[in-house]
Write a structure and sequence with these properties.
Layout lengths: L2 E5 L8 H8 L7 E4 L5 H9 L5 E6 L1 H8 L8 E5 L5 H5 L6 H9 L2 E10 L2 E3 L2 E4 L1 H11 L11 H14 L8 E3 L3 E3 L2 E4 L5 E3 L2 E3 L11 E6 L7 H10 L7 E7 L1 E14 L2 E22 L3
Parallel strand pairs: 1-2, 1-3, 3-4
Antiparallel strand pairs: 5-6, 5-16, 7-10, 7-15, 8-9, 8-15, 10-13, 11-12, 13-14, 15-16
Helix pairs in contact: 1-5, 2-3, 6-7
Length: about 290
């Protein structure tokens, strides 16, 4: 079996020793290619897709996103947790330990999973317009450590509190969900959980799944006194109720912003947009998941 391991050496938990231990769990003769800059994993995956039987990725969520944007879906993909959060492999059942994940993926089954797409860019687990995208931007503005590593969960909590404080805890309607109505911000989930805070899964939409379309959760407006209830709901999974727009298993949803707003996919800032067209790509790629 010919296999490729794409490694982001700047991912939070990646080291030469970890790469050695991971390779020991992969098919014999697996080729290792290390990325040297943003976006490179897309071209690496595209260039190797037709010459290998599997592509493994040891990285954080940003590099997983680059890989799914570089493949056609023919080759199985093994996502191994090398970042601080690594949402995708955890959501696929591979866990947080990269060596154990490599073992599970190598002995696993290639299962079709859906992806999302917004304005032509694929995403694996989540995307958002407004609040969570602004949060991602704040984290990026903090920069990275000298070794290239991104700030961890504590920095995200501080950034979230700072974002809430700067808005005085109030988020008025700022966008229109086509054929649905107004909302303050929009969270789009391709799986459950939406993301993680340490070991805690933030669920946003409990019904989201890789084998369905997209789920959208969008508070109509938020005031300071509503924040604790909203935070609890986002952590546990929001259901349809007054003041919250919830769409389940949709193939397309269009979001139009009153003025340009931040857009993020899989934790990567895509800049400001006036319109975001979200689309579901069902069974877009095959992911290596543990045997049941």
């Amino acid at each position: 079996m010919a296999a490729l391991l794409i490694v982001n050496p700047q991912a939070s938990n990646v080291s030469d020793e970890l790469v050695r231990r991971v390779v020991a769990e992969l098919p014999p003769g697996t080729e290792v290619v290390r990325t040297t800059g943003p976006g490179e994993a897309t071209s690496i995956a595209r260039d190797h897709e037709r010459s290998v039987d599997a592509i493994y990725v040891l990285s954080g969520d940003g590099t997983y996103n680059e890989v799914v944007n570089g493949v056609s879906g023919e080759v199985p993909l093994g996502f191994l947790p090398g970042g601080g959060t690594s949402v995708l492999p955890r959501a696929l059942g591979l866990g947080r330990d990269p060596v154990a994940a490599a073992r599970l993926a190598t002995g696993g089954t290639a299962t079709p999973i859906g992806l999302g797409r917004v304005n032509g860019r694929r995403f694996a687990f989540n995307a958002g317009v407004g609040f969570d995208a602004a949060l991602v931007r704040r984290i990026d503005e903090r920069g990275r450590a000298e070794d290239g590593r991104r700030p961890g969960d504590v920095a995200f909590v501080r950034a979230a509190l700072g974002l809430i404080a700067s808005s005085r805890g109030t988020f008025p309607p700022a966008l229109e969900i086509e054929d649905v109505g107004r909302a303050a911000f929009a969270l789009v989930a391709n799986c459950d959980p939406y993301t993680y805070a340490g070991r805690l899964g933030l669920r946003v939409s409990r019904d989201a799944s890789f084998d369905r379309g997209l789920d959208l959760v969008a508070p109509v407006s938020v005031r300071a006194w509503q924040l604790p209830r909203l935070a609890f709901g986002l952590a546990r999974g929001l259901r349809r109720r007054d003041g919250v727009v919830v769409l389940h298993d949709v193939d397309e949803v269009v979001v139009r912003c009153d003025e340009p707003m931040p857009l993020q996919v899989d934790g990567e800032d895509l800049g400001d947009v006036e319109v975001a067209v979200f689309e579901s790509e069902r069974a877009a790629v095959r992911a290596l998941v543990p045997r049941r």
